[in-house]
Amino acid sequence: MKEIVVISGKGGTGKTTVTAALAGLGPEKVIADCDVDAADMHLIMSPAVQVTHDFYSGELAEIDPEICIQCGECREMCRFGAINEDFQVLSEHCEGCALCYHVCPVQAVRMNERLCGQWYESTTRFGPLVHASLGIGEENSGKLVTTVRKASQATAEEKGYELVLVDGSPGIGCPVIASLTNADVALLVGEPTVSAVGDLHRVSELTAHFGIKTLALINKVDINPGLVQELKDFCLDKKIEIVGELPYAPSFTHAQLQGQTICEYDPQGLGQTMAGIWTRIESCL
Amino acid sequence: MRIVVASGKGGTGKTTVAVNLAWTIKSLGHRVSFVDCDVEEPNAHYFLQTEWTSEQTQTVPVPQVDTQACLGESCQKCAQECRFKALIWMVDAILVFPELCHSCGLCEYICPAGAISDTTRTIGTLRQGASDDLNVYGGLLRIGEAMAPPLIKRVKEAASTGEVQIIDAPPGTSCPVIEAMDGADYVLLVAEPTAFGLHDLTLTVHLMRKLGYPFGVVINREGMGDGRVKEYLDREGVEILATLPHTQEAATAYSQGRLLVEAFPDFKDHFSALWQAVQARTSVQAREAQAMRGERR
Question: Which CATH number fits domain B59-122: 3.40.640.10, 3.30.70.3270, 1.10.10.10, 3.30.70.20?
Answer without folding.
Answer: 3.30.70.20
